[in-house]
Amino acid sequence: MTKNKKVNAAILIIGNEILSGRTKDTNTSSIALWLNSIGVKVKEVRVISDIESTIIETVNNLREANDYVFTTGGIGPTHDDITALSISKAFNLKYEIHKEAFKILESYYKVGEFNEGRQKMVWMPKNANLILNPTSGAPGFSVENVFCLPGVPSILKSMLGGLKDKIVGGDPILSHTISLRTVESEIANSLTKVQDNNKDVEIGSYPFFQAGKLGVSIVIRSEDKFKIDNCSSQILKFVNEKKIEIVDR
């Protein structure tokens, strides 16, 4: 893959705790923001339960349809952490102890603390590549274009930087936001005309409520700054004609 090519990814959140609402998903935002910065656009996000057959089927579907797939969750030491085994089956690879991961965790824990439960975290697909973990020792892993990360947000964030050399992105995806004191219905027709005239630029409108008043943020996204500036000028033209207030957020 080279620059200027559209590079896309899918994010797969694995965990019953997300589906039940007990745990809030913040990993999608962390991964998507990081990917955008290196020119990879997130095309799809799915949240699934800790069921082996579901994980296998979903991973195989996503890895065929995307340049990269990022999974979060299910690589810890407990009985319901089945992501590594499921990935092994998805790729038809042997599920075995990763010798390098074993050495990392054996030296990370004090003598006697690297028990059977923690040793589960070194079982991975055969010949998986490690994703080093600077926070808590236990590495993630990748197989081909599938990257498996932990579900704990702070740990996941600390591991993303180590992936930069393994991901080939396109041009960074740029964005510009214009926030207005208005409602969507007031600008819908004008904004649609701008979008129709700039089909290769992504334009989104997002209502917000601030200081007791309604507003709309218009977000313009593209790999090309000139195209963003051009859209921005067209939007500001109708904003001024309608005498709509621009606000800081």
Folded structure, characterized:
This protein is of the alpha/beta class and 249 residues long. The protein has two domains: 159 residues, MoaB/Mog-like domain (Molybdenum Cofactor Biosythetic Enzyme, Chain A); 73 residues, Ribosomal protein S10 (Alpha-Beta Plaits). The strands form three sheets. A six-stranded mixed sheet has the order 2-1-3-8-7-6, sandwiched between helices. It has a four-stranded antiparallel sheet with strand order 10-11-9-12, covered by helices on one side. The mean pLDDT is 93.
Write the layout of secondary structure elements.
Layout lengths: L7 E7 L1 H4 L7 H11 L3 E8 L3 H14 L2 E5 L10 H8 L4 E3 L1 H10 L7 H4 L3 E3 L3 E3 L8 E4 L2 E4 L3 H8 L13 E8 L2 H14 L4 E9 L2 E10 L2 H17 L3 E2 L3
Parallel strand pairs: 1-2, 1-3, 3-8
Antiparallel strand pairs: 4-5, 6-7, 7-8, 9-11, 9-12, 10-11
Helix pairs in contact: 2-7, 3-4, 8-9
Summarize this entry quickly.
The chain is built from nine helices and twelve strands. The chain has helices spanning 16-19, 27-37, 52-65, 83-90, 99-108, 116-119, 153-160, 184-197, 225-241; strands spanning 8-14, 41-48, 68-72, 95-97, 123-125, 129-131, 140-143, 146-149, 174-181, 202-210, 213-222, 245-246.
The helix-strand sequence is EHHEHEHEHHEEEEHEHEEHE
Strand order of the largest sheet: 2-1-3-8-7-6
CATH architectural arrangement of the largest domain: 3-Layer(aba) Sandwich
What is the rounded Rg?
A: 22 Å
Q: What is the overall pLDDT average? A: 93
Please describe the biggest sheet, giving its number of strands, its sense, and whether it closes into a barrel. 6 strands, mixed
Taken together, the total number of domains comes to 2
